[in-house]
Amino acid sequence: MGSLFRSEEMTLCQLFLQSEAAYACVSELGELGLVQFRDLNPDVNAFQRKFVNEVRRCDEMERKLRYLEKEIRRDDIPMLEIPGECPEAPQPREMIDLEATFEKLENELREVNQNAEALKRNYLELTELKHILRKTQVFFDEHEGGANPTDSMTRALISDDPNKQIGQVQLGFRDKQESLEFLPCFVAGVILRERIPAFERMLWRACRGNVFLRQAEIDTPLEDPASSDEVYKSVFIIFFQGDQLKTRVKKICEGFRATLYPCPEAPADRREMAMGVMTRIEDLNTVLGQTQDHRHRVLVAAAKNIKNWFVKVRKIKAIYHTLNLFNLDVTQKCLIAECWVPALDMETIQLALRKGTERSGSSVPPILNRMETLEDPPTYNRTNKFTSAFQNLIYAYGTATYREVNPAPYTIITFPFLFAVMFGDLGHGALMAAFGFWMCYKEKPLQAKKIDSEIWNIFFGGRYIILLMGLFSMYTGLIYNDIFSKSLNIFGSSWRSNYNASDLRDHKLLQLNPDSDDYTQTPYPFGIDPVWQLAEANKIIFMNAYKMKISIIIGVFHMLFGVCMSLWNHLYFKRRISIYMEFIPQILFLTLLFFYMVLLMFIKWTSYGPNPGNFGSQESEYVKRSAFCAPSILITFINMMLFKTDENTRPQCDVTMYAGQLFLQKLFVICALLCVPVMLFGKPYYIMKEQKQRAAAGHQSIEGAAENGTAGGAPVPASAHHDEEISEVFIHQAIHTIEYVLGSVSHTASYLRLWALSLAHAQLAEVAWNMLLRKGLMVAGYQGGIFLYVVFAGWAAISVSILVLMEGLSAFLHTLRLHWVEFQSKFYAGEGYLFQPFSFEVILDSAGTSEE
Length: 852
Hints:
alpha+beta, five-stranded antiparallel β-sheet, extended
């Protein structure tokens, strides 16, 4: 847990491995997932590295496995998940066996698919021929007496009318002698149904009307052997005369991808061919069934192990890819690697290396040496399933600089709390908490489903954040005493009415007088008194003042905590000048101005009561501490900044809240303003002075060494500006100072979003209640039950979709901004890079995600 507050101490190590033990050692390190290797061959082409052939073999095996997986999914065969733990990476000698297995399966499956496709193609041709023989027989039978249609066509062609129409097609000749020179003939075939209109128009235009086309639809769809899609086709027969038209018709059929089949003219020949076709179709059905059964058995056998095979191949590929990052020594018997490792895990890594050496049978132990370097180490924070979501929120802003303070542990509390201040509603918070609790309770079953939805994955990844946001919203909902825009009267209201029953009945808008002689009244024990729900005249005024002040108080404390976190960074990195010239002026500036404003709020709350006062005696202390004399904190703060004192328009009241207030306020403002030049010129002046001393002494000063030294036994990134031009140092510090001074004002105002969103959420909930559910409750009788059922459905839909989802998303984004800008900017640089160890778990997860 300690690394959650500050990133792990990292060490750069040099690793020497024997060639025969390198594979097994890297495999053990991949299972461990604690080592980040560096590429020692950045200038070497990927195709020129030592183990490129092994990587190519792994790619080829992956291709074969993807082909098998595609065929398995195509047949909807379930693939068995890996039982128990993930299998270990196989030994290099097992790679040959895997290749042989995959090669055999692929060849067998491809051969079966080719045979099945050829059989399906033959089956399709026979089926189409069957339909042609059946449909053309109908065409022939339509002519009177069952006569041959070609004879009828001949009689029509040589008749006295040269323009006689046959069916819908007109065959015209100039004279009878020309028509006798040609014998009528026909072609029959099958074409896609949607191409029939265009096909018919093309025949008519290309043949100038000298063709006779008949077509009939095939009722049942036919399977395309190439794509396995079902298509609808039609049978056609075309009558024409002459070889010239025959050539033209066949070209048109070829252009429209129509399939032509032989069709005898004699009925006996057609019947004989049809019987032969039916016999062949039955034989093909038997062979196709056997082929499909064999294919199914092959795929079922592959489906039992394909997940396991994928894991093994990907582990082998990852190992060889990592080995390509290593260097070979001059003897070609040793591999040299450089890697970042957590300092606390050195012993664990040594044990993994020994285990890998024993597995390989090598007698030479690996050597792991620490290296000195000035390079910035990677940032590594150990997380679990609860803290990882909050850590990812921090990483979304930027990866922490090495060993700087990590905001994640504090974000676990502050993030859901600030969200709850904006979302404070007991009912809506309970809905959100229930959803988060369901995802946490059903965590393992939901993970096993591997739902392929980006929005769902975002919600599920932040399930613990949603749970905490809901629980904190329930707490703030109790504080606000707000549940679906209504209040809970748990302890009984502490208000007593000063009016009689007739006044309350005749006057709807009456302001309850807080001045009462009943001194037994006590404040509402927890949260806001529910009587405010009935206050239509001044409810919003009271809630505005309450939530606005709470927002400022929370914001100032949050920013002060952020500035204090910067002190931890300065102390750890031994930046003494940053403590004196940055932290102290910053904390003084924020405390003397804005924290003082918060103190004024508490002084006002404790010093002034609700009583209006007795103005008969102006000198009475009772009057001076009444609500009438309570000053405005905003006006007081503005006057303080302007060194201004307003004229006292209320003689019976004191000008100040406590003795010596005006002098103390002027002193605070002057001290705060003096902090600005210290922040602006202090550090640049010290750096300039240090540069002069170093130039005169010829060596680096002690303070400079501290600024750029090491901490915790690991190198620390340089933070001083001794290598920069002094003008750049002044510019950098000026930007930093202006940003902090102006940011203190803008950031304090930015926390008012807590008040604004809380007020908006409460008003939207009240509008939803008054416009929908309240009207449903006002209808009596059985009609009221039906109407309430409908209205409640609408109110529930609006509450979930708008008040929970949309308002929750809005509050989440505003909370994220408050942490990234207002809080983390005070101490968090976020200029590091993430520790990305060689881990089989990460590689397999990313591969599975990309596949989905």
